[in-house]
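re: ur question from earlier - yeah i can do the single chain one, its not a big deal. heres the input i used so u can compare w yours
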Amino acid sequence: MAKVAMCAGHGGSGSTPGKRSPAGEYEWNFNDAVVRAAIAKLKANGVEVLRTDDASGKTDVGLTARTNKANAWGADVYVSCHHNALGTNWLNYEIGIETFTQNGSQPQSEILARCIHPKYVKAMGLKDRGMKKSNLAITRQTKMPAVLTEGGFMDSRIDIKSMRDNAKLKAQGEAIADGIMEFLNVKNTNSAPKVSKPSPGKTGSKQITKPSSPTKTKWKKLTGNWTGQTLGNGEYGNPVNQLQTKLANNNPPFYPNKGAKNNGIDSYYGDDTEDAVRRFQSYYGLDVDGLAGKQVYNKLSGTSTKSNPKKSISQMATEVIAGKHGSGHENRRNSLGISKSEYEKVRKEVNKRL
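and the output i got, formated as C-alpha cells:
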C-alpha cells in the first residue's frame, strides 16, 4: 500500500506568530482545508496517510518533528501545504501559485512537483508562478521525494478570493491528491488529466519552468543601457539584466527568483522579474503596475546600499526597538535586508532587551 505523509504548514489558534492575511485569517486554516480534502481523496483510493502536524491547529509542531515522523514511518512521498504572503498589507494585484523542491538536483521530487503543480494551479484558477527551488527544512530533512505547495498569496486581494472559496480549497486538495497518485502509479477514480512526466536527468538546480512567460518567439530584444526607459514583461537584453541586478543589489534585495541560478538574473523580463518589480513598487509606495520605468529607476538608483558596511546584531536590534523598520517580522527583515537566520538573532536580541 502506498504511504503518503502530509502536513498543513504552521499552526492555527495563534500558535504561530504572524502567518495571517491582512484581515487576520490564519494561514493554517487555509492549509488545513486543503490537506483534509487531499487526505480524504487519497484514503478513498486506498492510500495510507500520515498527517504530521496537529490536526486541531492548537500547536505548531516543529519541522524536525514532522520530518522525523515521516522518515520513521517510511513514507513514499511528503507534501506540505501552504499559502504565501509578501507582507502584512493588501496588494491590489494577482500573485499566484508556486511549488518548491529542495535546492540542487532532486529528480524524484521534481517529478512529483510536475505531477502536482499544474493540477492545483488549474483548481485554484490563479496565476502560475512555476516550480522553484529553495532550501526548506521540510524538503531538506525528508528521506523521500518531497514538495512544498504555495496555493496563493494571502495579502493579494485577488488570490484571497479563491482562498476564501471552500469549494476551491477542496478542489486544490483533491488536485494535489491526484498528482500524488499519478506519481505513485495508484489507480485513481475520478482523476484529473495526466501531465506527462519529464526525464529525471533534465532537471537541475534552477527554476524548472516559466509557464506564464511569453514564448521564445515573442521576446522583444533590447540593446543599450537602462536609463529609466520603461521595461516590461516579454522583453530581454542588457537593460533588463541591469534592472535585475539593481533589484538584487537593493537593500533589501528583490531577487527575480532567489534559489534559481544567479538568483534569476537572466536578462529576461518574465513573470518572476515582473513580480520582483511589483514587490519593489509596493514596498516603496510607488504605483504598482509591474513596469520598470523612471519611478523604479530613480528609486533603485537612490537606494542601492549593498556596499554599506554590515550592521551588527546589536545595532539592528536597537533600530528595530526604535521602530525604524516598521512592524511585522517579514517587513522588518526585508527592511533590514538580512536572511531569516540573521533576523532570528536580531529578534532574540530584541526580546532579551524588552
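Strands lie at 3-8, 48-51, 77-84, 97-102, 128-134, 146-153, 220-222, 235-237. not sure if urs matches, ping me
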